[in-house]
Amino acid sequence: MSSEPQTPVPQPNGTDLTPSSSLILPPTSEHSQPASSRTNKSSFGAESTMSLLVESLKDRMLFAVPKKGRLMEKTLELLAGADVKYNRAHRLDVALVQNHPIALVFLPAADIPRFVALGSVALGITGQDVIAESTHAEQITELLPLGYGKCSLQVQVPVSGPYQSVEELSGARVATSFEVLAGEFFSKVDEKAGKGKKTRVEYVGGSVEAACALGMADGIVDLVESGDTMRAAGLHAIHTLLTSEAVLITSRAPHPSLTPALAPLVPMLKSRFAGVLAAKRYVYASYNIRREQLPSALKITPGRRAPTVSPLEEDGWVAVSAMVERKAMAKTMDELERAGAEDVLIFAMDNCRVGV
Ligand SMILES: Nc1ncnc2c1ncn2[C@@H]1O[C@H](COP(=O)(O)OP(=O)(O)OP(=O)(O)O)[C@@H](O)[C@H]1O
Ligand SMILES: O=P(O)(O)OC[C@H]1O[C@H](OP(=O)(O)OP(=O)(O)O)[C@H](O)[C@@H]1O
């Protein structure tokens, strides 16, 4: 038996089964059995763990989330904000959600479009870039942009190299992890450039920026967010193929596991996620102002739909409350002050519900 810590495996009814007592160990004590028999019992235990897990997935909606990389941490924060509670057993890529009939499936972001498109899972979170690269984009519906994992897929070349446009790069060597998108893009560039040469697009799994310095490529196609990696490698961008962010996705075809009992989970999660995101994006502003100054103040705080205006006990004064973008908070307060607002208060929101 493994010496790793034994994490309780949550069960559909909310109780936890501890692997040592209920899943891994055979019914009788391991120490009373001969060694050969102990080995058999252990593998029996592993099989029974797996079959129990498979059994417990039957009445659950499967939801794929990134298991590593740039999208993982923010996705886990989003799940926590939406009160999706789960225990993930060590090294297990499936976790049963304790408070909803959902099972989370932890997968590499690049594999999620395929799992969603082919109906292996009902919902997923991944980047728009890997959806486009997967060639399953047409089978996928984007339910909600999630505002994180923002980046651009760009053609990059050495700053002082001989190729400074995509037309000049046509016919040369390009390294990328996005060989489908880069291949499609350079086919069109090659056709337009009319040199009768085909750009050689070669797959590299990671650290793509090193390819030019190593003499493997004349240019690359890779993701850029801050641009730090690109600049550190002495590269600059000469073209943007696409911009991307993380999105909640489902398959265009109705998913067989989404029974009438499970189907409402999709709008519920979408609405919860939108609320978590809006609470991060907006703050709640409240202020008092003379009624005659109200029109100019309302231009500053129009609210998401419309501001709330209520009369104050003092004649000629009103109280206004409205959601304001967090990033514009300080500027908005300055402008309100100039417009005659008093008692300007800003409240952060823990959570909220907004129309999506
Ligand atoms: N620098 C970045 N800033 C923001 N988002 C990014 C950045 N790099 C990648 N992403 C987004 O995160 C997704 C996952 O990228 P990441 O390289 O972290 O994946 P990974 O699963 O660890 O894959 P790999 O093992 O191939 O690196 C990308 O498809 C993209 O949507
Ligand atoms: O513009 P920046 O903010 O510097 O981000 C860009 C880098 O981020 C991604 O790689 P990541 O660090 O995820 O690792 P990888 O190279 O192994 O894919 C991407 O492939 C770039 O290398």
From TrEMBL:
InterPro entries: ATP-PRT_HisG_long, ATP_PRibTrfase_cat, ATP_PRibTrfase_CS, ATP_PRibTrfase_HisG, HisG_C, N-reg_PII-like_a/b, N-reg_PII/ATP_PRibTrfase_C
GO BP: any one term: L-histidine biosynthetic process
Main location: cytoplasm
One GO MF term: ATP binding
Record pathway: Amino-acid biosynthesis; L-histidine biosynthesis; L-histidine from 5-phospho-alpha-D-ribose 1-diphosphate: step 1/9
Region (Disordered), start-end ranges: 1-44
GO cellular component: cytoplasm
Biased segments, Low complexity type: 15-29
Keywords of this entry: Amino-acid biosynthesis, ATP-binding, Cytoplasm, Glycosyltransferase, Histidine biosynthesis, Nucleotide-binding, Transferase
Domain of life: Eukaryota
Domain ATP phosphoribosyltransferase catalytic: 109-254
Subcellular location: Cytoplasm
Catalysis performed (reactions): 1-(5-phospho-beta-D-ribosyl)-ATP + diphosphate = 5-phospho-alpha-D-ribose 1-diphosphate + ATP
Residue ranges occupied by any Histidine biosynthesis HisG C-terminal domain in the UniProt entry: 279-350
Family the UniProt entry places it in: Belongs to the ATP phosphoribosyltransferase family.
Protein name from the UniProt record: ATP phosphoribosyltransferase
Organism in which the protein naturally occurs: Naematelia encephala
